[in-house]
Amino acid sequence: MTADHYAALGLGANASLSDIKKAFRQKASFYHPDKNDAPDAAQRFQAVQKAYEVLSDDEARQAYDDNRRRNLLDDPLQTAQEIWQTYFKSILPS
């Protein structure tokens, strides 16, 4: 994962849905290729659109946040164990 969707919108990870919508409208308006002549405007506009798509969808945001946390953890062994435990709970009946 190379893009930080929160950074694309200029938000922190604890942003609410209304904050995400507001930041998207502002950034999309600013970076829209019809309004911004910068050479990277179209690329930034696409990054803002993708960030909004992910962060405005509850399931996609949860998956994105989980992946971010996994990548930032200090103990990869513990993370691996949690992933396996979750996996086995989902496939084995209780």
UniProtKB/TrEMBL annotation:
Signal peptide: none annotated. It comes from Acidovorax carolinensis. This is Molecular chaperone DnaJ. Coiled coil: none annotated. It comes from the Bacteria. Residues 4-68 form the J domain.
